[in-house]
Design a protein that fits this description.
Blueprint lengths: L1 H12 L16 E8 L3 E3 L12 H11 L4 E5 H7 L14 H11 L1 E5 L11 E4 L4 H10 L4 E3 L2 H9 L5 E7 L7 E2 L9 E8 L5 E7 L2
Parallel strand pairs: 1-6, 1-7, 3-4, 3-6, 4-5
Antiparallel strand pairs: 2-8, 7-10, 9-10
Helix pairs in contact: 2-4
Amino acid sequence: MHYQSSLLIIFGLLAKSISGHVRGLEMAKLIYMAISSLDGYIADEEGSFDWAVPDEEVHAFVNDLLRPIGTYLYGRRMYETMLPWEREPALSDPLSLAQDFAKMWRAAEKVVYSRTLEAASSARTRIEHDFDSEAVRRMKARAERDLTVGGPELAGEAIKAGVVDECHLFLTPVLVGGGRRSLPEGVFVKVKLLDEHRFGNGVVHLHYRIGA
């Protein structure tokens, strides 16, 4: 259940590359993914997101979206929530969806933005004290694989800075009435719908280009 819960937060992280090939002159994309209530919250006013537990169909779809990702961008709290994935999940089935995600997560690079964290507790991880949008643009220009930004606060800062290229929203058929918003307030930006997918449990996936 612990791994299932932190998977939900991955959606606040997390992302898709629609091209897994070497990019040549094409710049890598920074992508935000969130699982959200229909009224736009990733957690209710009590901090609960039990209503968003993904079934196997949604979980497998998310794993496939994340498979081409090369780098995760996190704030400190999100990073600490994700740290259990640095260890092999204690699951009997080595081919499980959780095992699949754990292998992808350990193989990816991580950048953690924190003024209080002094050292990383995972491999392939570096600490940055401040979020610098120009540095993110340089990362995108150098990268051969896409990047994700995890968590609505850091993602909101990146959206306001104009460095998020795409967004994946998984809308859950529930109204929670308040809580932590999945998208930032106080920002106006046009988006273009690129794709949509409906799951058997009523969840709808919407894939947008930001700044269309």
